[in-house]
Amino acid sequence: MLVFVTVLAVVLDLLEPQPASSAVAQASATGHVDWRTVPPHFLTGAELSAAELDALLTRALELKDAPLSSRALEGRGVALIFERPSTRTRVSFEMGVHELGGHPLVLRSGEMQFSRGESARDTALVLSRQVAAVGVRTGPDALLEELARHARIPVFNMLTELHHPCQALADLLTVRETFGTLAGVRLAYVGDGTNVARSLAILGALAGMDIAVASPPGYSLERDLVLPAGAGGSLTLYEDPVEAVAGAHALYTDVWVSMGDEDSASERRAALAPYRIDDALLDAAAPGAIALHCLPAHPGEEITAEVLYGSRQRIWDQAENRRHAQKALLELLIESPA
Fold it and tell me: So what's the pLDDT on residue 137?
């Protein structure tokens, strides 16, 4: 009987799903995960190599030219967990999954057992047996990281407090469409050092771009931000927006008052007022420079209406490109060996 009990215990232990905690720890420590040994997650963008990023953007352009050419998700579902409001992210992911032949399953936290105390670990184990991948749009990064730690399927970041890598993929796709290359292109981000700026720095540098970020004191990106291994570009922080945009091919901005910042709205608007993208700032950049914005925009604050709706921007292409870039990402995640 003792032998039987011992063998049974060993079998049950083997059947228990094992979290990929070492892989998540590796990602946190090094910024890169070996996708050959774990489910391929996309949490910050640093999980990609420079070659993978280039191939993803090339594939995104192919999918933009032929939106219904891939059936990579045929007969499969993708869970999209939304704990924050969304327009572009929700629409682009829902339509993107549909165009790939799959079923987008939108889940709001209030509709899930999260609201009654179910753990992220248990949620990850359940979803791993039902869908092909899980996207998360939330606040603090802890929920995303916990789901990735225990999921046996790819987990991808649709927005967290610190990172917005899917937005950055669309940004790079738009710049590449416009200039034909990313290597050596200078992009100047002006304004609050948000999750958008951080993701631009990580993925832009990985793509070989020179990223300049201009912010007032107290709103800057961290000076010790670690760029991915293999990044061929650079990140430079500025206080003066005019200095930052000198020689820039693209100027980028984000809202001055993000979700959760409403209590300090007046203070933020006062500090960020010199960082507005207008025609004068575009004139200080390289000839032919374009304006970018992740949206939603507040004309008259971080960008003028003349630029937002004028001929010097690629903002609406940028919004459309969310779908194409994310479809290429989903193909990569689903088809990468676990």
Answer: 97
3-class DSSP state for residue 33? coil
Q: Rounded to whole angstroms, what are the CA distances from 154 to 133, 179, 331?
A: 5, 32, 11
Mean pLDDT for the chain overall: 90
230/268 same-domain check: yes
Q: Distance between CA 233 and CA 231 in Å, rounded?
A: 6
CATH number at residue 135: 3.40.50.1370
Same domain, residue pair 191 and 299:
yes
Residue where a domain terminates, one of 127, 161, 195: 161
User: 77, 103 in Cβ contact below 8 A?
Assistant: yes
Q: Are 27 and 43 in contact (CB under 8 A)?
A: yes
Instruction: With CA atoms as reference, report the closest residue to 198 among 176, 175, 243, 168.
Output: 168
Which residues participate in catalysis according to the annotation?
137, 164, 167, 254, 294, 322
Whether residue 35 is predicted with pLDDT greater than 50 in this model: the reply is no
SS3 category, 227 = coil
Q: How far apart are CA 46 and CA 207, in angstroms?
A: 11
Which among 175, 178, 180 has a CA at the least distance from the CA of 210? 175
Q: At what angle do helices 142-150 and 120-127 cross, to 10 degrees?
A: 50
Residue type, 112: M
Check: CB of residue 96 under 8 Å from CB of residue 297. no
Residue pLDDT, tens place only, 160-182: 999 999 999 999 999 999 999 99
Structural domains counted in the chain: 2
- Are 312 and 279 in contact, with CB atoms under 8 Å apart? yes
pLDDT tier at 112 (50, 70, 90 boundaries)?
confident
pTM of the predicted model, to two decimals? 0.89
Of 161, 177, 211, which one is at a domain's C-terminal end?
161
